[in-house]
Amino acid sequence: MAEVVVATAAVVKLFGPRRAVDHVDLRVGRSEIYGLVGPSGAGKTTLIRMICGLLPPSSGSVTVLDRPVPREFRAIESRIGYMPQERAVYRDLTVAENLTFFARIYGLDVKRIKTRIAELLALMHMRELWAQRADRLSGGERQRLSLACALIHDPELLLLDEPTIGLDPALRLEFWDHFHSLSRSGRTILLTTHYLAEAERCDRVGMMKLGRLIADGTPEQLKEQAAMGRESPSMEEVFLRMTQRPTPTAGGAR
């Protein structure tokens, strides 16, 4: 693997008696698109929130860009872009005002802000919407704006929680074109999705169930691990077969 950008070691997150993340070991390399897939409640969002410093782990460790998180997250905050599942834009601001607000948070100067806004409006096909208030955008348009806000400071690591949820198929494919372009330019992407078909578009995939990472590898490796032979199955079929296997107890977890 290339330089490790994100690493977790036996990480656990408890909410009272519930174990939302259960002894997860994860490695994501430089310029990689890594997809965490699984159904709602599998622990994907909780794991992402620990990686981006919003939740402390109950046990285990999280390292991002060679810094322990959350303890030293402030030192690397400007190098990370985070897109939460709930579309983090200000509904009473225009598209341009939202982008300007996030650019200023990350300390971009006036000239750089102007350049980045122009680049992202073009990239997201939102030039004609620059003066539109966010609360008047469609769901897909707000999703594009949310991604643009995460990209405004040109981060080297992107943490994207369900970035394509609710998008029509054409827009979903457009987002994936952006992700692959970013990866080719040296950016690292860790994303979550419950669309198992999207796993085919990732360099590597981690399959989660009930807080555990039950499988990890390239799409081709996961198909081989599931003993598919020459079937050329879908990732949905791979996941179903993986989840039917007995899950060993992890790290002494109950």
Topology summary:
Blueprint: E1 4-15, E2 18-29, E3 33-37, H1 44-51, E4 59-64, E5 67-69, E6 80-83, H2 95-105, H3 110-123, H4 139-151, E7 157-161, H5 169-184, E8 188-193, E9 204-209, E10 212-217, H6 219-225, H7 235-244
Parallel strand pairs: 3-8, 3-9, 6-7, 7-8
Antiparallel strand pairs: 1-2, 1-4, 4-5, 9-10
Helix pairs in contact: 2-4
Structure, explained:
With 254 residues, this protein is α/β, with parallel strands linked by helices. It has a domain at 4-88 and 155-244: 3-Layer(aba) Sandwich (Rossmann fold). 31% of the residues lie in helices and 26% in strands. It is built from seven helices and ten strands. The strands form two sheets. Strands 6-7-8-3-9-10 form a six-stranded mixed β-sheet, with helices on both faces. Strands 2-1-4-5 form a four-stranded antiparallel β-sheet, covered by helices on one side. β1 and β2 (18-29) form a beta hairpin.
